[in-house]
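subagent[fold] <- orchestrator: predict structure for attached chain, return C-alpha coordinates only, no commentary.
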Amino acid sequence: MALVLSAVALPQLHLSSSGVLYAVASGAPTSGVGYAVWYRVLPTLQATHAATVQLSVPVIAALGGIVLLGEAATWPMALSACAIMGGIGLVIWNKA
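subagent[fold] -> orchestrator:
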Protein backbone atom coordinates (compact mmCIF):
# COMPACT_ATOMS: atom_id res chain seq x y z
CA MET A 1 0.00 0.00 0.00
CA ALA A 2 2.85 2.39 0.84
CA LEU A 3 4.49 1.68 -2.53
CA VAL A 4 1.26 2.43 -4.39
CA LEU A 5 0.72 5.67 -2.49
CA SER A 6 4.34 6.64 -3.03
CA ALA A 7 4.00 6.03 -6.77
CA VAL A 8 0.86 8.19 -6.86
CA ALA A 9 2.63 11.00 -4.98
CA LEU A 10 5.81 10.78 -7.09
CA PRO A 11 4.90 13.73 -9.37
CA GLN A 12 4.71 16.01 -6.31
CA LEU A 13 8.06 14.82 -4.96
CA HIS A 14 10.52 17.60 -4.20
CA LEU A 15 13.89 16.75 -2.72
CA SER A 16 16.36 19.29 -1.47
CA SER A 17 19.89 18.50 -0.44
CA SER A 18 19.35 20.02 3.01
CA GLY A 19 16.14 18.04 3.51
CA VAL A 20 17.80 14.77 2.58
CA LEU A 21 20.80 15.63 4.79
CA TYR A 22 18.54 16.39 7.78
CA ALA A 23 16.58 13.18 7.25
CA VAL A 24 19.72 11.05 7.12
CA ALA A 25 21.34 12.91 10.04
CA SER A 26 18.28 12.55 12.25
CA GLY A 27 17.70 8.92 11.36
CA ALA A 28 21.00 7.10 11.16
CA PRO A 29 22.94 8.41 14.19
CA THR A 30 19.97 8.54 16.53
CA SER A 31 18.86 5.03 15.59
CA GLY A 32 22.42 3.80 15.98
CA VAL A 33 22.76 5.32 19.44
CA GLY A 34 19.36 4.00 20.46
CA TYR A 35 20.20 0.46 19.38
CA ALA A 36 23.65 0.63 20.99
CA VAL A 37 22.15 1.65 24.33
CA TRP A 38 19.34 -0.91 24.09
CA TYR A 39 21.63 -3.84 23.30
CA ARG A 40 24.06 -2.77 26.02
CA VAL A 41 21.26 -2.84 28.63
CA LEU A 42 19.36 -5.83 27.25
CA PRO A 43 21.55 -8.58 28.79
CA THR A 44 20.85 -7.17 32.26
CA LEU A 45 17.08 -7.49 31.87
CA GLN A 46 14.79 -10.48 32.19
CA ALA A 47 12.99 -11.36 28.95
CA THR A 48 9.57 -10.26 30.23
CA HIS A 49 10.99 -6.99 31.55
CA ALA A 50 12.79 -6.27 28.28
CA ALA A 51 9.65 -6.94 26.25
CA THR A 52 7.59 -4.74 28.53
CA VAL A 53 10.07 -1.86 28.68
CA GLN A 54 9.97 -1.65 24.88
CA LEU A 55 6.37 -0.52 25.23
CA SER A 56 7.66 2.78 26.64
CA VAL A 57 8.94 3.88 23.21
CA PRO A 58 5.75 5.81 22.28
CA VAL A 59 5.90 7.69 25.60
CA ILE A 60 9.56 8.58 25.02
CA ALA A 61 8.76 9.71 21.47
CA ALA A 62 5.87 11.86 22.69
CA LEU A 63 8.05 13.46 25.35
CA GLY A 64 10.72 14.11 22.74
CA GLY A 65 8.15 15.82 20.56
CA ILE A 66 7.05 18.02 23.44
CA VAL A 67 10.54 18.93 24.64
CA LEU A 68 12.44 19.11 21.36
CA LEU A 69 9.78 20.13 18.84
CA GLY A 70 7.44 22.19 20.97
CA GLU A 71 4.43 19.97 20.35
CA ALA A 72 1.43 20.50 22.57
CA ALA A 73 1.04 18.31 25.64
CA THR A 74 -2.58 17.23 25.91
CA TRP A 75 -4.59 15.51 28.62
CA PRO A 76 -5.28 12.43 26.47
CA MET A 77 -1.53 12.13 25.83
CA ALA A 78 -0.76 12.45 29.54
CA LEU A 79 -3.41 9.90 30.50
CA SER A 80 -2.16 7.48 27.84
CA ALA A 81 1.43 7.90 29.05
CA CYS A 82 0.32 7.23 32.63
CA ALA A 83 -1.57 4.11 31.55
CA ILE A 84 1.41 2.80 29.57
CA MET A 85 3.94 3.52 32.29
CA GLY A 86 1.58 2.16 34.96
CA GLY A 87 1.22 -1.10 33.02
CA ILE A 88 4.98 -1.36 32.65
CA GLY A 89 5.39 -0.74 36.37
CA LEU A 90 2.87 -3.46 37.21
CA VAL A 91 4.77 -6.00 35.12
CA ILE A 92 8.20 -5.06 36.42
CA TRP A 93 7.29 -4.91 40.10
CA ASN A 94 4.97 -7.89 40.11
CA LYS A 95 6.23 -10.25 42.83
CA ALA A 96 4.08 -13.22 41.79
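orchestrator: received. Logging for downstream: The first helix runs from residue 2 to 9. The mean pLDDT is 90.
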